[in-house]
Write a structure and sequence with these properties.
- The protein has about 240 residues and is mostly beta strands.
- Helices cover about 5% and strands about 55% of the residues.
- It has one helix and 18 strands.
- Strands 1, 2, 3, 6, 7, 11, 13, 14, 17 and 18 form a ten-stranded mixed sheet that branches. The chain has a four-stranded antiparallel sheet with strand order 5-4-8-9, with no helix packed on it.
- The protein is globular, with a radius of gyration of 20 Å.
- The termini are far apart.
- About 30% of the residues are buried.
Length: about 240
């Protein structure tokens, strides 16, 4: 494939002292069409004077590449390089400054009919964080499935370096049951969700500089992430 048709889709994330690099190539603006490095094409990364080869994370399918490393100090600037022949096409990003979860401290349980759990993040009011909810759930018949969705929240306040949210338990129940049905081949009579053990990953994500020598739809981001444990009980 021509260089001008290849779009980098890279993400540099940091959680604590661990930095994770995820790299993928797609075709132009079509994020669903994966471009597999072939021939002498390869992907590497450089940071802090070090250079590493990115490994295939897709069981030999050449669809996703990555690596991780430990870092202390200022947020690292990471470059992801796509190599073809003697040329290297460089995309660079750095995670934003760290933030913390102020509330809750430790795991919490959300019930379907209870008050929504309050979550407080140490982020400036101007930042719009994203979240990913993932984990394992059990239905009322004892069967289990893996769930992944967004945590439904309402913004209560955002002042200075403090954002307060509240979980919407009714919408959470709907979302989890939708994932349950999807995991059961779309069977609408799937038994209801009873409970879940979930992890919420909160992320502040910013754009970096994608390689200008590749397709202009390319994208690289830097993110800082914090996680929390959230248990869900439908029948309490």
């Amino acid at each position: 494939m021509r260089l001008e048709d290849i779009s980098p889709r890279h993400r540099i994330s940091q959680s604590g002292n661990t930095v994770t690099i995820l790299a993928q190539l797609s075709q132009s603006a079509n994020v669903l069409t994966v471009v597999r490095p072939s021939g002498g094409d390869r992907l590497s990364a450089s940071f802090g004077g070090r250079s590493i080869e990115l490994r295939d994370l897709s069981d030999g399918m050449r669809e996703r590449y990555g690596a991780s490393f430990t870092h202390t100090g200022e947020q690292p600037s990471v470059s992801v390089l796509f190599h073809r022949g003697a040329d290297s096409h460089v995309s660079t990003a750095a995670p934003p400054r760290p933030f913390v979860m102020l509330e809750p401290i430790g795991p919490v349980t959300q019930t379907r009919n209870g008050t929504g759990v309050t979550i407080v993040l140490g982020l400036p009011a101007s930042v719009l964080p994203g979240n990913l909810l993932s984990g394992r759930c059990e239905r009322v018949d004892g069967s289990r499935f893996e769930a992944e969705t967004q945590l439904p929240i309402k913004l209560i306040s955002a002042v200075a370096d403090r954002q307060t949210y509240q979980v919407d338990p009714a919408v959470l129940d709907i979302k989890l049951n939708e994932r349950s049905i999807a995991a059961n081949n779309g069977v609408v009579t799937t038994p209801f969700v009873r409970r879940c053990e979930l992890t919420v990953t909160w992320a502040h994500e910013i754009r970096g500089q994608a390689a200008t020598t590749l397709n202009h739809h390319g994208r690289i981001t830097g993110a800082y992430e914090v996680t929390q444990r959230l248990n869900y009980e439908a029948q309490l």
